[in-house]
Each structure stands twice: as structure tokens, then as C-alpha cells.
Amino acid sequence: xxxxxxxxxxxxxxxxxxxxxxxxxxxxxxxxxxxxxxxxxxxxxxxxxxxxxxxxxxxxxxxxxxxxxxxxxxxxxxxxxxxxxxxxxxxxxxxxxxxxxxxxxxxxxxxxxxxxxxxxxxxxxxxxxxxxxxxxxxxxxxxxxxxxxxxxxxxxxxxxxxxxxxxxxxxxxxxxxxxxxxxxxxxxxxxxxxxxxxxxxxxxxxxxxxxxxxxxxxxxxxxxxxxxxxxxxxxxxxxxxxxxxxxxxxxxxxxxxxxxxxxxxxxxxxxxxxxxxxxxxxxxxxxxxxxxxxxxxxxxxxxxxxxxxxxxxxxxxxxxxxxxxxxxxxxxxxxxxxxxxxxxxxxxxxxxxxxxxxxxxxxxxxxxxxxxxxxxxxxxxxxxxxxxxxxxxxxxxxxxxxxxxxxxxxxxxxxxxxxxxxxxxxxxxxxxxxxxxxxxxxxxxxxxxxxxxxxxxxxxxxxxxxxxxxxxxxxxxxxxxxxxxxxxxxxxxxxxxxxxxxxxxxxxxxxxxxxxxxxxxxx
Length: 523
Hints:
Elements: H1 4-14, H2 18-40, H3 44-55, H4 58-64, H5 72-98, H6 101-106, H7 108-113, H8 121-147, H9 152-179, H10 183-206, H11 217-223, H12 234-253, H13 276-307, H14 310-313, H15 317-327, H16 333-357, H17 359-365, H18 368-373, H19 379-409, H20 413-421, H21 424-440, H22 445-464, H23 470-473, H24 484-487, H25 493-516
Helix pairs in contact: 1-8, 2-5, 2-8, 2-22, 4-10, 4-16, 5-8, 5-9, 5-10, 5-11, 8-9, 9-10, 9-11, 9-12, 10-13, 10-16, 11-12, 13-16, 13-19, 16-19, 16-21, 19-20, 19-21, 19-25, 21-22, 21-25
């Protein structure tokens, strides 16, 4: 562990912008939701009616779980329990991999190891920072909640339950970086695990299989039940799981070489077979793409299974009125469910696409792009080789997920896959934005891309509770995607063409600017 404190200071310096922004937004969000809930539902009768409507909505059950208590605190915890845990899990995965596997991939870890730095110090430093950041954002949310008149103990439990998912997935990321030799593969594997576990929690809450929630960190965050019984002991489950995964990660780290993974790399042929820049890009992206594809396929199956039979199970007058309001008189419960779920899952696909879009920058930062460009390979061809997979990858993931969901639901694979692919232009818009940043702000490209993506997710959540006006909400590309299952394919043409055009302009601008600037090898 020698040198751990020095590496902690280095991580804090490198992430001196990203960490405070993430912590501040996550800490202030519960106050905003609690304040909005108090303003929108001024008496107990209004809160009871809202809770009853939510409990009869399968989409809400799948995304947020049941309402345990229709109080101000109970509704606040219900609103943010799953979404806050999901955001914390994603950021934690990215940070742990950024300061462990990515450091080994670029060679900086080996350079540090030549000094007075112990073998376990980098992983210990990354986990310490990420675990402490999650704890801090959870505790900083308490004063705002208490200021709304909520109990101190329940507010502390809610903050800790929000942090618990971040702790769990920091440990998951610590494990995946031991298994794989590439940071992209480690991210893809961790994100796929997160998607499957989120789906497990969704099935547990919406499919009547309650015990499944105990298999998922997202379920643990919900099962603490802040403001509705305060199950403090559930946090012990989180601590035990995190300790076990962390211990396994440290044990495995001693069984591999630096910059290597436990999963053996397949031996290549005696003579080179990579066909140019695109062949190299395929070799770099394929592991993450295959791993993510398997994860999202399983996710689609779980969504389809959860939707099966919903039209009969929750056929209540209250929910029929909600369905008619959202999708029109002819909409079915399952169609509304798919619309809500795919909206959120498309953002998970966007996270995978951003990793691919930023791969060119990571190759540049590691100095490998300079070696490649010394050969007869132009910058445009090199940049496009990575951009192709950043654009084609999400198309494949959305299609696979939609087809799997359709097959598991009623066999309508093509119809559901087509509706899911409607989110592709919104994903491409984020890919184009990241590509533009690689061209104009290479050093800040990753931090700004992920920060903007997090802000978009925040805007979507706040817009649901009418905390932002329409002009702010329109900044999210996802709100411009029409629900083709509800509105029909004809309504999708104009907005989807518009989003595709924006994505094309951003991506073209990024490639053009990359061609005109100097390479920036350092991170």
C-alpha cells in the first residue's frame, strides 16, 4: 500500500473539476425533488392519489419500484432511489477504471511502479476516492432534506442508500479491471453487469418476483426503505458485498502482470492479419461491443418478460386513463411500458457509445496514435475508423435489445426493434458532440463529454417533475425522439432527420478540427 496517499492526492488533482460537479449535483438533487414534491402535492390526499397512480403504472414500477410510504420523504426516496443509484453506479465505474486499468494501458502505472509505490496502491487509492466521494454526496444531501422538515435519521439513511450503489459498482469495476487487459473492455463488462442487475431489480418490482431484488445493488438501495421503516441493517449487506468484491479484486491483482488481464488474450497468427486502420479499430472495439451486446440482449429479454401479461395484470380505470393521456385511446399498457423503459435504456447505450467515441482520444493520449500515424495512415481515416464503431455500435445494441424484448413479449421482434432504433439519432448526437470535443478540446474531451451526459440525465429527471421549463428540457436530444410505438412511424421522420443532421455536423466538425491541430499525447 506504499504511496497510496500520494496517489489519492494525484487523483483529486486530476479530477478537481469532475468530482465537485458530480458531488454537488447529486447532493442538491434530493432537495430539489423534495421541494417540488411538497409544492405539487400539498396534502396527504394528493400524495395518496399520486402513489396509487404510480403503483398501478408498470413502467414506474419497473424504473423506480413500489412506493413504500406516500409521505414527502417516501415520495422523494421513491423518485430518486433508482435513478440516483444508477447515476452513482455509472460514474463510480468510470472513475475506478480511469485511475486503474486506463493508467496501466497508457504505461503510466508501470512508470509509477518503478518508484516507491506498492502494487496495491493504485487500486486502493482509486477505491478510496470513489467510495469517499459517494459517501460525501450522500451525507451532503442530508441538510437539504432536513430543511424540508424530514427526519434526520431517515435522511441519513437515504443518503447512504444512494451512495451504496456507487460503492457496490466501484467494487465491480475493481474486479473487471483485473479480468481484462483493455479499459474499454472493462467498462463494457461493468456497464453490462450494471444493466443486467438493474433489469433484475426492475423484474423484481414489476413482475411480482420480489426476492430477485436481493440479488441486485439497485434492489438493496430500495430495500433500505428510508422514511418507511428505515431498514438500516440492509446496509450491512452492501458492506459485506463490497468488502468481498474488493478482497477478490486485490487477490486477483497479485495473479496477473501489470497491463495484463486474467482472461488470457487469444494468440494471434504468425503473420499480421490486421487490414489497415479499420481492422485495428475493429480489434480494439470488438471485445467491448460483444460484451455489451450480450448484456443488452439479456436486458431486452428481461424487459420483454416483465411486459408480458401487463395488459391484463394492471387493467385498472386509473391506469387506463394514464395510458390514454400518454399514448392516445388505442395505446396498450405494454406499449407505454416499453416507451418508458427504452427511453432510460437508450441512455445506457449512450454511455457505451461515448466510450467508443472517446477511444480515439485515449489512443492519442497513450502515444499509440502518433506511432500509427507515422505509417501511411491519414488522420481522417484513423479518426473515422473509431467513429464508425461509435456510430454502428449503438445501432447494433439498440437493435439487439429491441429484438430480444419483442421476442420475449409477443414475438414482434421487428416492430419493437424499430421503435427502439428511433433513439439512435439521439445517441449519435452525443457521439458527435464527443467527437467535436476530441477535435477542439482534446485534454478535456472525456471530462466534458461525461459531465454533459450527466447533466442531460439530470435535466430529463427534473423535467419530469416540471422543475425546468421547456427551453431547458429541449437541450436534451432524447426528448425529441418520438414514441413510435405510441405515435406511429410517420411522426418520427422530421425530428429524427433533424437529430441525425445535428450529429453529422458535430462529428464532421470534430474530424475536421482533429485534422488541423497538433497531437496531444499527454493525458
